[in-house]
Amino acid sequence: MEPIQITGRHLKITDALRNDVHTKLRKLEKHFPHITRIHITLSTLNVDRRKPKVTRPKIHTAKGLISLPNKPEIVAEKTTDNLYTSIDLLIDVLDEQLKKANGMMKQRRDKITAELRH
Fold first, then answer.
1. Are 73 and 100 in contact (CB under 8 A)?
2. What is the pLDDT, as a whole number, of residue 83?
3. Where do the structural domains in the chain lie, given as residue ranges?
4. What is the DSSP letter of 28?
5. Are β-strands 58-67 and 74-80 bridged in parallel, bridged antiparallel, or unpaired?
């Protein structure tokens, strides 16, 4: 897998968080080992600004962008009230999209191979 960029908005990316995201992204290599770039953006937002800062509810968003060679970029976003849940859901969506992209490439390759045989 090529470079992984992790960006935090209104959030400090700690080493533990970075390692967690890297570990979960390794799952994606199984379906498409030729990923050229991954950019993950993690953000947090206070929902109700009228409440004191300590008790404000927060929403956490995880956005992902994957670049593949000679393919459109894969983009996904998940928002929940827990940062790690948002990351898990984002990885699941990106995994499904990579499986789909890989399956479409295999179908196209099989079709061309069948046409060449005839």
1. no
2. 93
3. 4-117
4. G
5. antiparallel
Spatial neighbors of 21 by CB under 8 A, at least 6 apart, are 4, 6, 40, 42, 87
Alpha carbon 53 to its chain centroid, in Å, reads: 30
Quote the pTM value.
0.79
Cβ pair 24, 88 in contact under 8 A: yes
User: What's the topology of domain 4-117?
Assistant: Double Stranded RNA Binding Domain (3.30.160)
Q: Are 36 and 2 in contact (CB under 8 A)?
A: yes
12-62 per-position pLDDT tens digit: 999 999 999 999 998 888 777 788 899 999 999 877 667 666 666 789 999
Using only C-alpha atoms, the chain has a radius of gyration, in whole angstroms, of: 18
Helix (H, G, I), strand (E, B) or coil at 36: coil
Residue keyed to tokens 């992790």? 6
